[in-house]
Write a structure and sequence with these properties.
single chain, about 400 residues, alpha+beta, Butyryl-Coa Dehydrogenase, subunit A, domain 1, Butyryl-CoA Dehydrogenase, subunit A, domain 3, 12 helices, binds flavin-adenine dinucleotide
Amino acid sequence: MDFAFTPEQEALRKEVRDFLAKELTPAVRAEMEAANEGRPLHRSACETPLLKALFQKIADRGWVGISYPKEYGGQGGDRISQYLVEEELYRENITVSLGGSGAPAIMAAGTEEQKRHFIPKLISGEFMFCQGFTEPSGGADLASLRCRAVADGDHFVINGQKMYTSNAESATHVYLMARTDTTVPKHEGISIFLIPMDTPGITVRPLWTIQNNPPAPQTTTYGHGRTNETFYDNVRVHKSCILGEVNKGWRVGSMGLNLDRVGAARYLISVKRDEDIVNLVKKSMDLGDYTPAKDPAMRDKLAELWTEAQVCRLMTLRSMSIVERGGKFTYEGSAEKVWAPEHGVRTTEAITQMLGQYGQLLNGSPHAIRSGLFAHNVLGSFQSGINHGSVQVMRDQVARRGLGLPRAKRG
Ligand SMILES: Cc1cc2nc3c(=O)[nH]c(=O)nc-3n(C[C@H](O)[C@H](O)[C@H](O)COP(=O)(O)OP(=O)(O)OC[C@H]3O[C@@H](n4cnc5c(N)ncnc54)[C@H](O)[C@@H]3O)c2cc1C
């Protein structure tokens, strides 16, 4: 087993590092700081001149959507190269993610027309999906969804409500799961629609998470804490908006979610935070007569978290390698989705412990450290164990698909 990257991959990593060292001038960094919403910067949210220019240079180098075929605007490259580029950019708080499971699902199940319409514009940043899967009745049991799409000639008319539709306020399209047949078993009557957000009948209402109560400082790792409720009132769409076959949306949606779990972002959210803490401790942390860098317990904790982060990274690379080789990918993404968010919780807890009781104060308290950044990060970290499939449900998938155990007996 060879864990090394190829010379070409190492050269690519160096090229990205050199690029960032040259391009992230103090003026660019100042714009990055001003635009920062805590989340890594995406080109769709960058309107200022220097950031626009930066993202254009990144795009010109072909670093967005590297693993997508050339005819759809990608580079026809391998996933590991894409990962290496994402890893380097993410360390500088920049993301070139295509935003969720829409793009991989379109590549796997879309028509030629859909691929040509969506993929180049997702790569260029002109299009951005939000994902409308979860409903008020529950997200873990997704197949019970009630949002209805009723056929009407060449069209479908959609009515229903979705919960936690993150980024709906800025997305151009929604990647929506709706029920198209109520007479068959629940997994078999579901379809996926790709719908422009400006279609009449769609309403977006903000839904703030605990991380934003009181309002979080801009610099939290988990962003500003906004997700959305979305309402669909007689939304009329042409049947060509369906991704894959009618009533076969369950398979397409699950596959897209699984593929989207394979990537640098999840691992890097945790690892970057780890690295930030180590840098903080190394450079500036001197709390009166307590210096965390010299405290044996804190040093052990940081070493332990770093080691856990490396496990996370290897799990990510393993999953990518399986997908790259066309292997069967069933539970690996779920295992990663358990490990990374829980590592994230442990990391944010470690820093608040280090800061003592003041580390628990939220934004607004006169005694809060760095506007309560670390306390807000603790709250934010719990979300990542829920969004994109909760860790409990992921554990169940590992037990069934990874360990071959029967379905759990509940109740
Ligand atoms: C910040 C945030 C962003 C999100 N963004 C999106 C988005 O963009 N698009 C979207 O569609 N959804 C999104 N979600 C929704 C997310 O996928 C769901 O919250 C998640 O699937 C759990 O669903 P639920 O909240 O309805 O909880 P429920 O399904 O009601 O579950 C409640 C609890 O019971 C546990 N549970 C349920 N069933 C089982 C089981 N079989 N075995 C073990 N435990 C179980 C769950 O793990 C959970 O802890 C987001 C959620 C959050 C918090």
